[in-house]
Amino acid sequence: MTETTLSDTNGTSNGAAVPKKKILINAFDMSTDRSATKRKLDYWIDLAKLLERGGINALFLADTYGGYDTYEGSLDNCIRRAAQWPMTDPTIPISAMAAVTKNLAFAITASTSFEPPFLLAKRFSTLDHLTGGRFGWNIVTSWKKAAFKAIGLDTPIEHDERYAQADEYLRVLYKLWEGSWAVDAITENISDEYIDPAKIRTITHNGKYFHLESRHIVDPSPQRTPFLFQAGTSSAGSEFAATHAEAIFVSSHSPTVLRPKIDKIRELAKERGRDPQSVKFFATFTPVLGRTDEEAQEKYAELKKYASEVGGLVLVSGWTGIDLSKYPPDHVLTAEDTTTDHRVRSLLDQFTVVSPEIPEWTPRVIAEKASIGGLGPVAVGSPSTVADELERWVREADVDGFNVGYVTTPGSFEDVVELLVPELRRRGIYSETEGEGLTAREKVYGKGQRELRGDHVGSQYKYDVYDESKA
Question: What residue stretches are annotated with the Luciferase-like domain (predicted)?
Answer without folding.
Answer: 33-395
